[in-house]
Specification:
binds nicotinamide-adenine-dinucleotide; alpha/beta; globular; 265 residues
Length: 265
């Protein structure tokens, strides 16, 4: 067991998705109990099956992270079930419509801002008071390379992910003396449903979505697509006591994408 999370209770949003599920499995392997939040019950149930097989306790809460009532409910359910929230992976997100800014409708802009920014705020808003009462807790929000870079065709996504870095740094400094550590993870090109769909739009000549993701992902300096488990390892570390001095960091897990503007060849 590389990182000890035994006896800790962790809420994961987007728990049915690629990065969310991989993180739940890593956390369960380290002994954490889990509250699995997703708007898609079938996906969350699949994650539950995987983590329960590892011998931890888990609970699925179906919620839309853009609904204040749903967010309040998943936090209350977590406290009712486990008494304490030690970790929170504020991760649910969507890519929104992949389109140049001058063609994007206001409705599509608002949709992606609602999930990727307002959803992240709401999670913080209801989890932090619980952790303040406990005087302890660790939070990781999912940013992206889009937290640092302008990327054509995903303006709403990029704006929201830049804002996630702002939320991380602000809440980190507000809460550090209350025993709460807040950090962010900034994945690059990761092999999940989301990146496969983005790559499919950007590379329509590649018929297979997975192949499109592999091709687009190999533009990273490391020369290959990232795997959700590689992000999950970093999230688990940030949520653990091993990361005791990490406060307000946005940690790139991107095979070098944000390290450089050019590659060696
Ligand atoms: N895959 C990548 O390359 C990549 C790169 C950088 C950042 N990210 C970020 O990682 C996070 C996870 O994405 P992923 O790649 O695992 O994608 P994914 O589509 O596999 O997973 C996203 C999950 O979030 C859930 N979700 C979406 N909207 C929701 C809502 N309103 N309420 C509740 N749940 C909702 C979905 O049902 C899904 O299970 C996102 O924040 C994404 O922006 C992904």
């Amino acid at each position: 067991m590389s990182v000890d999370m035994s006896g800790k209770n962790v809420i994961v949003t987007g728990a049915g998705g690629g990065i969310g599920r991989a993180t739940c499995i890593k956390l369960a392997e380290s002994g954490a109990n889990l509250v699995l939040v997703d708007r898609d019950k079938a996906l969350a149930d699949e994650t539950k099956k995987a983590v329960d097989a590892l011998g931890v306790s888990s609970l699925v809460v179906v919620a839309d992270v853009t609904s204040e009532e749903d967010v309040k409910n998943y936090v209350e359910r977590a406290v009712a079930e486990f008494g304490k929230i030690d970790g929170f992976f504020n991760n649910a997100g969507i890519e929104g419509r992949v389109q140049l800014m001058h063609e994007l409708s206001y409705a599509d802009w608002k949709k992606v801002i609602d999930v990727n920014l307002n959803g992240v705020f709401l999670g913080m808003r209801y989890v932090v008071p619980v952790m303040r009462r406990q005087k302890s807790g660790a939070i990781v929000c999912t940013g992206s390379i889009a937290s640092f870079l302008g990327l054509p065709t995903t303006i709403g996504y990029n704006a929201a992910k830049h804002a996630v870095a702002g939320i991380v740094r602000t809440v980190a400094t507000e809460e550090a003396r209350n025993g709460i550590r807040v950090n962010g993870v900034a994945p690059g090109f990761i092999n999940t449903r989301m990146f496969q769909d983005i790559a499919h739009v950007l590379l329509p000549e590649v018929a297979d979505k997975h192949k499109a993701a592999e091709t687009a992902g190999s533009s990273a300096p490391i020369g290959r697509l990232g795997q959700p488990e590689e992000v999950a390892n970093v999230v688990r570390f940030l949520l653990s006591d091993e990361a005791s001095l990490m406060v307000g960091a946005m940690v790139a897990v991107d095979g070098g994408v944000t390290a450089t503007a050019t590659t060696a060849d």
